[in-house]
Structure formats: C-alpha cells, structure tokens
Amino acid sequence: LQKNIEAGIGKRSSSKPVLSLVAAYAYPNASVVTMEADGWFGEEVYCRYFDENRIEIDSPVKSVVYPEFVVYCCSNPLARFMSITEAVEESVMQVVPLLNRTVDDPKYSLSLCLSPLYGNESKWILLAELIEHYKLQGVMHFYVYIKDIDDYSRKLIDDYIETGEVETIFFSDKQHRMGKDWQLAGVKDCLHRSRYHSRYSIFADLDERIMTTTNNISLAEYVFILNLRQVCCGYTASGSILLSIRNVCETKNSFQVLDMWVHRAMAYFPGYGHCKASANEAILMHYRFSNDEWQYDVPQRLLNYGTFETWHYPEHLMRRLYLNIKERLDRVYGNSEHKLLV
C-alpha cells in the first residue's frame, strides 16, 4: 500500500470534504471500510470497532486511505459495526454494518456492478434493457448504485429487488459534487461488495452492453472457459474499449485487484496482472446516437484501444431480449402508456 501511495497511483485532485461512509467488509485477514468522501488519498485515519449494540470495543487502529474511498483495517472478530475518524479522540458520527466476507464460497457465479445512477432524467427503459441483456449473458446478480433516480424508474428497481436479482446502494446527500463524480465511489465499493460474494464481477455503465462474439456463447460461459485456461487476470479488454471482468481465480489468494478504476484496474495484489481479449472474443457496445458529435471528439486514449464501428445487437438474442423486457415492464407498469406491444 505504501509503495502505491508514494507513487500516487489512483490519486485524484479534489478537496477533502467531511468523512461519510458507505459500508464495511470483514475478510479473513483484514477489514475494509469504504467511503463516499473524495480527496482523502494517503491521509492517516483511525479504524473504530463496535459490537452488536454499537458500543465501541478495543482501541482505535491507525491506518491510511488507499485506494481513494477505501481504508484497510485490522480484523476484529468481535466487531459488528465499524467507523473511520480523522483523530483518535474524535467523536464517532456514523457507523456502518460490517458485512461478512470471510468465507470464500460465493453465492453468485457472475454479477454486475452498475456505475452510480445520477440526474433527474428517466432511466426505466435503459435499466430494463441492461438487466435483461445481462441476464441473457448469464449474470445472476446486480449491484445497483444510486445517487439520483426518478420515481417511475424506482418502481422498476423495486420490482427487481423483490425478485432477488438486484440489491441497491444509495449514496447520501452529505457530499456535494457533480453526479458523474460519484462513479468512482461506486466502483471502489463494489469491488469489495462483490468480493467473496460473486465469483466474477463485471463493471459497466448504464449505456454499455458487453457480450461475446465467439460461437454464440454467453459471458458466463466465456469466463468459465477463461478459468479452465487458468487465466488469472484482473480485467479483460475488447477490441476498442476496455471492459472490466474481475476474475477471481481458483487459488488460495482470491484477492487480485487492489484498486479498480472506472474501466480498468489501477493496481493489483502481488502475483496478478491483466489480460486482453480481442474483438474476435468479446466486444463492448457503447450506446451513441449516429449523429452524435462525440465520435468526432474521441479522446486519444480511447482511440488507442482500436477502431470504433457501428454494431448491431445479435439477431439470435434480439427477440428473446425484447420479450423479456416487455414481460418485465408489463408486470411493473401494467396498462400504462409505456406498455410495449408485441
């Protein structure tokens, strides 16, 4: 950790707001607390431990914020809640439940970490299409991070929660920054939320659709094949744009990615690296209007991944995707004006 801090890996230029927390995770050899607060990279803080009655136990333990939004702490088997403070004597204003991730027996084979939703525009149709697309790809569970969501779209999310396919993580209103700047806070937390909870995790935005181009196999099947090849990599890339599949290999040490960025891993634990998949194996479809001027102002760093081209959704999946979306929307909204026709 100290080596990466000194190298400034993953550091962002931002002010240091008041601490506010997202969650805490207990692993076999350490605990982790994730934060909403930006700008604390490399700062010394103190890990605080609490029992089931939220009474503090043991002395605070000094640590450091790294990666951004993340604090690694010593394990405490008696702790049920945790907090982070800037000073030993500082009053604790917020505690978060300590989620048990001590057993390497994932509930899900493949899950998806969705970048935080923000803004007041309606999101229901993209959400339904995203979830139903990835279900066809073998995704079993969705971690959905929310900063802002309209009431109509919330009805759809609530229905997916009822069927056990989605869990939601809501950010508080304690931090004030642009909606898109919440993306990293969600990514950093989901790296830990999915660890030991899902064997593999995809990181994607609302307007991205990842799929294979090999023999009509699903992403779940593709990742299984990678595992048979004993490919231990933090992420894989498709043709022109990076797609992030965190591959937790069948080894004693399942920790691979130390620091996850929006579309790439910034740092790995010792012994791990990354691999790339060509466009002959997997692609990422990024929704854009055909007349969008974005295509004429593409950052050079994206052009380095390869050539951009128009792509059509696979014909063998289109009908199934449409019917699955229609069934879900009819179930949630009934005979509303948005009901789809066959």
Low-pLDDT runs of 5+ residues are 231-254
Can you give the mean pLDDT? 82
Number of helices: 7
What value does the Rg take, in angstroms?
A: 21 Å
EC number: 2.4.1.-
Protein name: Glycosyltransferase family 92 protein
InterPro entries: Glyco_transf_92 (IPR008166)
Family: Belongs to the glycosyltransferase 92 family.
Explain this structure:
A seven-stranded mixed sheet has the order 4-3-6-7-1-2-5, with helices on one face. A six-stranded mixed sheet has the order 10-9-8-11-14-13, with helices on both faces. It has helices at residues 2-7, 124-136, 151-162, 183-193, 219-228, 300-303, 315-333, and strands at 21-26, 31-35, 44-50, 61-64, 70-73, 81-85, 96-100, 108-117, 141-146, 166-170, 198-204, 208-212, 236-238, 241-247, 257-260, 265-268, 282-286. It is α+β, with helices and mostly antiparallel strands. The model is unreliable at 231-254 (pLDDT under 50). It has two domains: 9-100, Immunoglobulin-like (Sandwich), CATH 2.60.40; 108-217 and 256-333, no CATH class. It has seven helices and 17 strands.
Question: Can you give me a brief rundown of this structure?
Answer:
Keywords: Glycosyltransferase, Membrane, Transferase, Transmembrane, Transmembrane helix. The protein has helices at 2-7, 124-136, 151-162, 183-193, 219-228, 300-303, 315-333, and strands at residues 21-26, 31-35, 44-50, 61-64, 70-73, 81-85, 96-100, 108-117, 141-146, 166-170, 198-204, 208-212, 236-238, 241-247, 257-260, 265-268, 282-286.
